[in-house]
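INFO  loader      accepted 1 record
INFO  loader      residues=235
INFO  predictor   begin
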Amino acid sequence: MKKLVVFILFCCSMHAGAQNNPLRLFGKDPIIHLENFDKQRVHWGYFLGFNFFDYKFDYKTVAPDIVVDRTTGFNVGLIGDLRLTQSFHLRFEPGLYYTQRNLTYPLLTRESDRKREVPATYIHFPLLLKFSALRTGNIRPYLVGGFSSTLNLSSNAKSLDDNKQGRFRVKRMTNNYEVGFGIDLYLEYFKFSPSIRGVFGMGNELIPDADPNSPWTGNVSSMQTRAVLINFAFH
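INFO  predictor   done
INFO  writer      dumping tokens
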């Protein structure tokens, strides 16, 4: 993931350095690039990025928290943008998200019982409303928010095994709301848009074990996704 970020920043710096004076891109008197780009009714793009997925647990009784070890995942997807007004755009950003969360149960003594790996391959369907500030030179900041549905291809919701057999089960479909911000940078041949967005699950994703007193799920009343998405979009 670090290599991806370094590569994208390197490409942008090389593009700027190709100009006689880099300040002409974003300085006091910049060369205006893609002046009519945002006047298009519809435009398309794609994004690459990385993610940090977590779980928020609510418990039935007071007990030590389940520890979530977050890993860095990878995002890739497409962008469809519909211009509504000068400042508002409707966006659909279907994407593929790879991630994994590792859970630790502090009250369990056996190592095989204490650890649970929860890998996930998500197909993510967000419908977002984008509000953009006025463009200044080749820079235009924006806010974005909306709702999304997520299909977990790695879900084992239909499995008859549960944590007693070492299988942690989660639901196949979840719904979320999302909020974030970003910056549109207008380069000579394309628009580059780094952004950061929070994802907040709205429903309980946990499938409880068959035993109502299960040490893994018996005390959990709700488990919801929390995530940070960092995307680099190209239009």
